[in-house]
């Protein structure tokens, strides 16, 4: 949710779904989140997708970084 960090405050995840992304070494996470926007208004039901790659035993990192 890096794309929200500079703009939204009091961000919270409302729901998450994780699936394999073609192999056991990659995962895609779909998030539904809520937070206060720059105008102070609280917004719910925002969505984002984050991809991860497995790096070593039990360690995952954001893909594309």
Shape: elongated
- For the termini, the CA-CA separation is 14 Å
Strand content: over 45%
- Going by helix content, strand content and strand pairing, the class is mainly beta
Total beta strand runs: 4
Uncertain runs are: none
- Strand arrangement, largest sheet? 1-2-3-4
Q: How is this structure best described in words?
A:
This protein is mostly beta strands. It is 6% helix and 60% strand. Strands 1-2-3-4 form a four-stranded antiparallel beta sheet, with no helix packed on it. A hairpin with a 5-residue loop joins strand 2 and strand 3.
Present the secondary structure layout.
Elements: H1 2-5, E1 9-20, E2 26-36, E3 42-54, E4 60-62
Antiparallel strand pairs: 1-2, 2-3, 3-4
Task: Please give a handful of descriptors for the protein shown.
65 residues, mainly beta, 1 helix
Can I get a quick summary?
This protein has 65 residues and is mainly beta. The chain contains 1 helix and 4 strands, in the order αββββ.
């Amino acid at each position: 949710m890096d794309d929200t960090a500079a703009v939204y405050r009091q961000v919270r995840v409302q729901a998450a779904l994780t699936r394999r992304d073609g192999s056991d070494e990659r995962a895609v996470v779909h998030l539904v989140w809520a937070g206060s926007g720059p105008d102070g208004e609280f917004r719910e039901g925002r969505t984002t997708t984050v991809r991860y790659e497995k790096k070593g035993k039990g360690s995952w990192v954001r893909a594309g970084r």
